[in-house]
Amino acid sequence: MRLSGSGRVRSTKIILGLCVCLVLVTLITAGAAQSMMPSGKAYAQSTTDGSPPVIQLFKAEPMVLNADDSALYSFVVRRATGVQLIEAGNTLKEITNPSGETLKGTVKGLPAYALQGDGSTFIALLIASNDSGDVQKELTLSFATPPPGTGPPTGQEGATDNQTEPRSPKWLPPYSSPFAFTRSATVGSEPDFFKCPEDCQYCLKPEDAAARGFGQRCSEQPCYYSPDNQQKWYCHKPVPGWCCADGKVFQNTKDECTKLGGYWSLTQAEALERCQPLGWCCTRDGQILQGTKSQCAQSGGTYYDSLAVAKELCQPPCYCCLRGQVYQTTQSACLQSGGNCYSSLAQAYERCQQAETCWCCFRGQVYQTTQAQCMQSGGACYSTQSQAAAACYQEGPRTPYLK
Questions:
Q1: How confident is the model at residue 258 (pLDDT cuts 50, 70, 90)?
Q2: Residue 106 sits in which domain range?
Q3: Which end of the chain is more exposed for a tag (fewer CB within 10 A), N or C?
Q4: Would you tell me how many other CB atoms lie within 10 Å of the CB of residue 386?
Q5: Measured between alpha carbons, how far apart are the two ends of the chain, in Å?
């Protein structure tokens, strides 16, 4: 069928109209899709600024849990692209935050009966990380009631007396609940740990071993480690040292010495020093301090057995001015003799010379001045004017002397 000229024009217009409609629909759809998605630049931008993350807040309520209680953890973290919350070795929450915006939130922990093992405490750990590093904070929570039957972990039979405080985090049997978070993959039955030999049965953390004087580590293989592998215990044995107890010094371990109420040291010299009886030391400046005889001697002081004797004999140094003479003595002795006491030798000479004047005969002249000035000028000093005049006028020049 052939179309007339007007028919062809109408068909062309219809086709053009359909094309325009399709273009408009395409543009509108693309614009809507673009408005629903953040720009690539805004999404990729991070607020970490090359700085490590900051944990502004990490707390738990309550800190002491009854059997059915669960801790509620609150946190505020800045500049972290990843956050992980671990409770007694169990991962409660993992957050991915590519933009590094500040994160605020709360996470509910597991029930206390699911956490309680052979210890009375457990640790909650918050780890924040970004490309610049990671930081962490930990909280130590406790149970309101002690666990039934404390003892060594599996694989450490017979070592109950050789352990320190309950270990935490602890290995626990698998726990599942439709209302709880999924446990970490590290939680499960406890592995077979290295068993300490009979002559080195103390399974301790390094810091605990150092505090108890257990300086010899028997093996580099850990005898216990926490599920998160953050804490490790090793086999140790006590180092024999020296104990001062009841005024006597003898060789003993630190634990045994502490039970006796004594002072323990690795060296005999230090134990002997600490075992000396305490007395009272009069220092050079007249202070009375408590210490041993050797300590007092090292400081240049005078040692006294009793405080009463020290107070009686320990007095500040005194330079006494008496009748024109300066000498060192105690303050009480100087005052009893009628002299004046000064704290330094220079001050005593200055004040003593000012107080003691005389009549000076010098080259036929008689005048009153201090003893020091008269002697320095080459004159002779007399106690009265008449004596000076008689000696000066009648006898002529004389060799200087003090009358």
A1: confident
A2: 54-143
A3: N
A4: 11
A5: 164
Both 85 and 121 in one domain: the answer is yes
Q: Do residues 246 and 296 share a domain? A: no
What is this structure's pTM?
0.31
List beta partners, residue 139.
124
Closest CA to 109 of 127, 94, 124, 98: 124
Domain contains 200: no
Residue 293, pLDDT score: 84
Q: Residue 188: inside a domain, yes or no?
A: no
Q: Are 86 and 129 in contact (CB under 8 A)?
A: no
**Does 184 have pLDDT greater than 80?**
no
How is 275-320 classified by DSSP, letter by letter? HSPPEEEE-TTS-EEEE-HHHHHHTT-EEESSHHHHHHH----EEE
62 lies in the same domain as 139: yes
pLDDT tens-digit profile of 49-95? 778 999 999 999 999 988 778 899 999 999 999 999 998 888 888 89
337 part of a folded domain: yes
- Distances in Å between the Cα of 348 and the Cα atoms of 215, 319, 335, 352 are 59, 6, 14, 6
Q: Which of 41, 124, 125, 131 is nearest to 80 (CA)?
A: 131
Buried residues in 111-124 as b, exposed as e (16+ CB within 10 A): bbebbbbbbbebbb
Tokens in use for 393? 């006028």
Q: What is the DSSP code string of 139-200?
A: EEEEESSPPSS--PPTT-TT-GGG--SPPSS--------TTSPPPPTT-SSPP-PPPPPTT-
Q: In this structure, what are the phi and psi dihedrals at residue 210, rounded to the nearest 5 degrees?
A: -65, -40
Q: Nearest Cα to 376, choosing from 397, 402, 342?
A: 402
Strands 248-252 and 103-111: unpaired
Beta bridge partners of 320: 327, 341
Last-in-domain residue among 88, 123, 143: 143
